[in-house]
Amino acid sequence: MCLPPQSDCVVVGASFAGLACAHALASAGLQVTVLEKKASSGEKLHTTGIIVKDAIDQVALLDGLPQELVRRIDGVRLYAPSMSSVDLSAPGYYFLATDTPRVMDWLAARAEAAGARIAYQTSFSQATRSRNGFDLGAAGTARYLVGADGPTSRVAKALGLGQNSQFLFGVEHEYAGVEIAQPNKLHCFVDRRLAPGYIGWIVAGVDTVQVGLARRLGSHQSMENAVMAAFLDKIAAICDFRRLRPVSVRAGMIPCGGLVRPVAGPRVLLVGDAAGMVSPVTAGGIHTALKHGLAAGHAIATYLNGRAEDPSGWFVRSYPRFRTKRVLRFLFDHFQSDTLFNWLLGTTPVRVAAGIVYFHHKSAFYPTAIGVARPHPESRDEISDGR
Asked: pTM of this prediction?
């Protein structure tokens, strides 16, 4: 694509947040250019792609999301290190597992239909302040700049904004043509040895089963090899993926330190992962990325149309601070104990914490799901290779 010499706003990164922001700006009649270094929005993703019910309820941009791109998940099965488990749910609450690459391409198409231009295989390289915004070199000029370019944002670095410094590292395998027991649940595994500071998971997605874990410690290489192999060994009694070849592998850094500071400057602001807008506990960021990406786009449009002050000075006060979840992150990092979790699984404290983490205080707890250190009886031989 031939880049326009001038844009009202340049958004760096065709992410959830970047596409939502671009859609809002273009819908307001502004000239918007999105710079995306990949060949498509859905290429080389680092996210499991689970969308919470709150996002469906609150983000109108998701209206019309094709049914074939999502699959409903109604609850959580939480496993202790001993592999005993409890089932958790909330009345009317659900998650949507997604075909994330196709969802991203669908969001990009919506932004383009609204009037945004997406320049694929185009990287952000520079930003020099000018009287009316920024000179972006080969990318032309922009009256406003939005950094939606991930946890190690180049926009943040170039303009002296806050940068993420605390991370999880996650890896996920996708397996096609398989089935698991209890496919309507998100299966979450707590194990300090394998996933310190976070969890492992299994979720039946759209046409694939996604198996992964993230951890606070350890090198990228150990995550993708020895630790992942140990996790597959651990869950083999429930569903055995060890002889199967994944159709894809995702891996990447996940910010977990909360909102960066500063998150904005004159005529520039960060959104999504670049802003640290990711739950420090769940590592979930799609809902906040879409919600605040859209709101940022509306706020910038109001400013550029002369009806408000620069949102870098007022709008960012609406960004989530994750105060409670930052406390839970601190506790999980410093006091996680497999022995303690084995003992507490099924108690009221775990129920309350799970309500905050998974369902925003709306959880219901089913004590009959508590087991000993063995798989659920229905889980044996419940996985096949489709042959």
From this structure: 0.90
